[in-house]
């Protein structure tokens, strides 16, 4: 148990802003989060910078876990600026960027479209939207992924059908069945290779 009454809240506040991102995380958890002697304004200011440190260090899951309550607080308390920036826009953009970095394209796109309505001139927002559209291209298309699965399934079922029905009882159709089986298998394989290729290119 930290003896809060023996630690000057102002010293904690000043010390927090001398630390790097990684040190801020442990310092915030130890001296700030549950400290009853730090005022709400100062604590939430440090909480925002703690969130930004999480983002800068690539701890996107934890950032997303904690950011929504802070966004609600910023809106409820009418906090307009943080370090000279629009606090609401800043947190919401970082939330979108976190989803983007986790390859959660739909969540990122939804937020970015809302931000675009607020600031149509934001080039970074537009750039991320363009990247998402490219990354959600053929490689991430549920339709083409389904085509691969259906192609292999069709090839498998025509092969089984040929072995147990066509070849024993309708041999004249055997060559056609073999051709259809091989063709569907080859097409599915080619499409699968192309989808894998596009995904590898997008991840570079």
Explain what you see:
The chain is mostly helical. It has two domains: 4-136, Serine Threonine Protein Phosphatase 5, Tetratricopeptide repeat, CATH 1.25.40; 139-203. Helices cover 75% and strands 2% of the residues. The chain has nine helices and two strands. The chain has a two-stranded antiparallel sheet with strand order 1-2. Helix 2 packs antiparallel against helix 3 (40-56), helix 5 packs antiparallel against helix 6 and helix 8 (142-169) packs antiparallel against helix 9 (174-203).
Could you give a short description of this structure?
This protein has helices at residues 9-16, 21-32, 40-56, 60-76, 87-101, 105-118, 123-135, 142-169, 174-203; strands at residues 81-82, 85-86. By secondary structure, it is mostly helical.
Helix content class: over 70%
Our count of helices gives 9
CATH-assigned homologous superfamily of the largest domain? Tetratricopeptide repeat domain
Unreliable spans: none
- CATH fold assignment of the largest domain: Serine Threonine Protein Phosphatase 5, Tetratricopeptide repeat
Strand runs, count: 2
CATH class of the largest domain: Mainly Alpha
């Amino acid at each position: 148990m930290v003896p809060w009454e023996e630690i000057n809240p102002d010293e904690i506040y000043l010390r927090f802003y001398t630390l790097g991102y990684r040190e801020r995380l442990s310092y915030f958890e130890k001296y700030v989060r549950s400290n009853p002697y730090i005022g709400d304004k100062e604590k939430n200011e440090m909480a925002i910078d703690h969130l930004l440190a999480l983002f800068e260090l690539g701890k996107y899951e934890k950032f997303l876990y904690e950011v929504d309550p802070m966004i609600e607080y910023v809106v409820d308390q009418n906090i307009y600026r943080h370090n000279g920036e629009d606090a609401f826009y800043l947190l919401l953009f970082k939330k979108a960027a976190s989803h983007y970095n986790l390859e959660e394209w739909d969540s990122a796109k939804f937020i970015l479209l809302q931000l675009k309505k607020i600031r149509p001139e934001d080039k970074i927002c537009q750039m991320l939207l363009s990247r998402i559209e490219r990354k959600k291209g053929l490689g991430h298309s549920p339709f083409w992924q389904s085509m691969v699965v259906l192609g292999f399934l069709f090839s498998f079922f025509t092969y089984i059908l040929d072995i147990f029905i066509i070849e024993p009882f309708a041999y004249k159709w055997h060559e056609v069945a073999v051709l259809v089986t091989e063709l569907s298998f080859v097409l599915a394989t080619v499409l699968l290779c192309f989808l894998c290729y596009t995904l590898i290119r997008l991840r570079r």
